Amino acid sequence: MSNSTLKYSVETSNPFLEEVMERSGQNLRSCYQCRRCAAGCPVGDETVVTPDRLIRMILLGEKEEALKNLLSWKCVACYTCGTRCPNNIQTARINEALKQMAKEAHIEPVIPKVASFHSAFMKSVAHFGRSNELEFMALYELENFKKGGINAVMDDLKSTSKLGKAMLKKKRMHFKLDKTKGRSEIKRLYKKSAEKRGSKD
Ligand code: SF4
Ligand code: SF4
Predict the structure, then answer these.
(1) Which domains does the chain have, with CATH numbers?
(2) What is the pLDDT along the chain (201 residues), one digit of tens a residue?
(3) Residues with C-beta less than 6 Å from any ligand 2 atom
(4) N or C: which end of the chain has fewer CB within 10 A?
């Protein structure tokens, strides 16, 4: 959160707050800043902005800061914050909404690689109903290529190959083409969501 004095403005904060609440399905107004969520967030120390602070930021209408905050990009969706919250506020869903809103507003992602990862993951899920490793990796490296050329792809492959081998060994990654049932329903939901947001993807 910025060090400047925070000023609440009904005109500027309400539309943003309403949009975040609608997209995330979370009632941010019920947050009473008990900070139970912050105590359990595994990335809170490195992001500085903890779930309670992010919610406060949104309530105060700090749109730009909220759309550029580090927590949304580092959140691992462990749902610890939501499990601990007495008001059942799931910050992981708020983070997801903020990432999408930042993307639509063409705001440079705080961590471009996470943005590429997010984009590739969402596309793969739209195709197969779940992430398919082969397609997902290809889409992810394509995003990296678009942003940083062949060097970005090579650097990434070098840094992740060790992790990939370890995951394969522990059977946490495989190259089978898994598909879920009801893929047409998933596609329909994606389409409906894009139409609602006035977006192509
Ligand atoms: S635990 Fe829930 S009510 Fe408490 S600060 Fe976090 S989000 Fe707000
Ligand atoms: S879901 Fe995200 S914000 Fe919540 S505790 Fe986990 S990492 Fe932190």
Answers:
(1) 10-104 (1.10.1060.10), 112-197 (no CATH)
(2) 444 455 555 555 589 999 999 999 999 999 999 999 999 999 999 998 999 999 999 999 999 999 999 999 999 999 999 999 999 999 999 999 999 899 889 898 888 888 888 888 888 888 888 888 888 888 988 988 888 889 888 888 888 888 888 888 888 777 777 778 888 888 888 888 878 776 655
(3) 40-43, 51, 71, 75-81, 91-92
(4) C
